[in-house]
Structures are given as C-alpha cells and as structure tokens.
Amino acid sequence: MNKKNLYNRIWAKSNNSWLLGIPLGGFIFLAIGVFILIAMQQVISYTSTTEFCQSCHIGSDTVVEEYQQSIHFMNRTGIRAECVDCHVPDSLLPKLIAKVSTGTTHIWSKITKDINLDNFESEHRERMANNAKETIRSLNSSTCMSCHDFDNMDTDKQGRTAKRKHSTKRRKDKTCIDCHSGIAHKLPEIVF
Ligand code: HEC
Ligand code: HEC
Ligand code: HEC
Ligand code: HEC
Predict the structure, then answer these.
(1) pLDDT on residue 111
(2) Would 88 disulfide with which of 36, 84, 169, 175, CB 3.0-4.6 Å?
(3) Least confident of 9-13, 160-164, 177-181
(4) Residue 14: pLDDT above 70?
(5) Among all ligands shown, which has an atom nearest to the Cα of 175?
(6) Is the CB–ligand 1 distance for residue 132 below 6 Å?
(7) Residue 144 CA, ligand 2 centroid: distance in Å
(8) Is the pLDDT of residue 192 over 50?
(9) Short-list 49, 62, 43, 34, CA closest to 129
(10) Quick check: helix, strand or coil at residue 61?
C-alpha cells in the first residue's frame, strides 16, 4: 500500500455513522469525569472548613470554645491553625482515607451517641482525646510539622527545658505529640 492510500484510508470519511459514537461517547465520559472531579473538590474543601467541624462540635462539647482561647487561634504573629491543620493529613490519599473513615465514624457517633455538654467531660472526653492523639501519633505529628519544624527552630531563643528536650539526643525518635498535648483544648480531667 502506498503512502497516499494509507492516508486516504485513515482520513476518509467513514460510511458507518455509528463510528461517530466513539468520539461522542469519549466526550460524554470526559464531561462526567470533570463533573465528578469538581464535585469531589467541592466536598473536600467544604468538609475542610472549621465551620463544618463546628457545626457538630459546638453545643455537644467544649473543644471549639477552648480552641478559641488557645495560642493556635490567636497569637502575636497572626498565624492560625484551623481544625484540619492539626487533625487531618494534608496529602491527598491519606486525606481521602481520613475523610471517609473518620468522617463516617463521626456521623455514625453523632447519630448513635448522645454526646452533650453534661456528659462530654465525664463519659466521652477521655476516649475522644485518646483517639485524637492516636491519630496524630500515627501520622508522626506530620500535621504539626506542616508548620513547626525542628530544623527551623532557633532553640537558643527557647526556654531552657524546651532547648534541652528539642535537642536531637533528647528527642530521639519522639515526635511533637509524644511530649505535647493540650495545645488547642483542655486536657481530660483524668490524666492519660
Ligand atoms: C456529623 C457531626 C460531626 C462533624 C461535622 C465533625 N465531627 Fe468530629 N466528632 C463527632 C462525634 C460525634 C465525635 C465522637 C466520636 C466518638 O464517639 O468517639 C467526634 C470526634 C472527634 C474527634 C476525637 C477523635 C475521634 O476520632 O473520635 C476529633 C479530633 C474530631 N471529632 C475532629 C473533627 C474535625 C477536625 C472536624 C471537621 C473536619 C469534625 N470533627 C467534624 C461529630 C462530628
Ligand atoms: C497552622 C500552623 C500550625 C500548626 C498546624 C500547629 N501549630 Fe503549634 N503553633 C503555631 C503558632 C503560630 C504558634 C504560636 C507561636 C507564637 O506566637 O509564639 C504555635 C505554638 C505552639 C506551641 C507553644 C505553645 C505556647 O503556649 O507557647 C506548641 C507547644 C505547639 N505550637 C505545638 C504544636 C503541636 C504539637 C501541633 C500539632 C498537634 C501544632 N503545634 C500544630 C502554628 C501551628
Ligand atoms: C522529648 C519531648 C519533646 C518533643 C519530642 C517535642 N517537644 Fe516541644 N517542648 C518540650 C518541653 C519539655 C518544652 C518546654 C515546656 C515548658 O517550658 O512549659 C517544649 C516547648 C515547646 C515550645 C515552646 C518553646 C518556647 O520556648 O516557648 C514549642 C513551640 C514546642 N515545644 C514545639 C514542639 C514541636 C512543634 C514539636 C515537634 C516538631 C516538639 N515541640 C517536640 C518537649 C518536647
Ligand atoms: C494546634 C492543633 C490543634 C487544633 C488547631 C485543633 N486541635 Fe483538636 N486536638 C488537638 C490535640 C493534640 C488533641 C488531643 C488531646 C489534647 O491534647 O488536647 C485534640 C483533641 C480534640 C478532640 C478530642 C476531645 C478532647 O478534648 O481532646 C476533639 C473533638 C477536637 N480536638 C476537635 C477539634 C476541633 C473541632 C477543632 C477546630 C475548632 C480543633 N480540634 C482544633 C490538636 C488541635
């Protein structure tokens, strides 16, 4: 077959009008794909807002009000850590997993458990605080380290204890959450 013939065969108008379905179908799939992506993006960004977290947590516990009194809400330099900055990993896959798994447990707990201002402290806080710490620990405190970094700390400017504890020798393989808690909320009354 010479070049011209080949060209004609590829570009000749097809007699089969159903072949049009292929680009058309492709286009429809692409449109649906783009639509789903945009919808997912919207859901992810809405469920990442502090307002979203507050919609459940205000009124059933006191963590939001405590956070608003903490240094992570307002400080000298004006940097605020939002709920998800500490509680939800930032990279896409872990974030999606966290959204689906913790998201569904939260909604399920909201329906099945009656957590309210009267029983939060006495019956629920300890478990919830432990879960929260466990999650941050499983992330090696990477959520904290998206803002704080040992390497960027001018330990000479820190208090004596902090300087000592943050030294490579002292901290060994400990991460922030192994030594720090109660940095955005009060601790449970029972020490854990
Ligand atoms: C649908 C209501 C609802 C929403 C929205 C919600 N939570 Fe929760 N959350 C709960 C309930 C209920 C619990 C208690 C779970 C349990 O019984 O252990 C909880 C527990 C927690 C805990 C304790 C650890 C754990 O997993 O039990 C953390 C931390 C937390 N929520 C953070 C957040 C953050 C951050 C957001 C926003 C991204 C958020 N929540 C949005 C209802 C909600
Ligand atoms: C969005 C950025 C951000 C994230 C995320 C974050 N922090 Fe902070 N942190 C700050 C800022 C800003 C301050 C206040 C600095 C200042 O003004 O002195 C601060 C202060 C602190 C302090 C000093 C408290 C005090 O009373 O002086 C500790 C300890 C701390 N953070 C630990 C943590 C830990 C542990 C985590 C993770 C659970 C975390 N931070 C997550 C930004 C962040
Ligand atoms: C081995 C334990 C340990 C580890 C790990 C650790 N810290 Fe600390 N940190 C301390 C102690 C102890 C202090 C002093 C507390 C005090 O003076 O009240 C401190 C103080 C601080 C302060 C206040 C410093 C100052 O001078 O005001 C910040 C901010 C802080 N830590 C952040 C972090 C972050 C972020 C991480 C993780 C990257 C981390 N720390 C890991 C033990 C630790
Ligand atoms: C600076 C990091 C940080 C920010 C910002 C933050 N949290 Fe937390 N949160 C923690 C840590 C660490 C714990 C584990 C217990 C503790 O140390 O207080 C925790 C515990 C919790 C718990 C378990 C109950 C308890 O009292 O321990 C809930 C619920 C919670 N956070 C929800 C939220 C919500 C909602 C927001 C935003 C309004 C928020 N957190 C903002 C770090 C943070």
Answers:
(1) 87
(2) 84
(3) 9-13
(4) no
(5) 3
(6) yes
(7) 7
(8) no
(9) 62
(10) strand
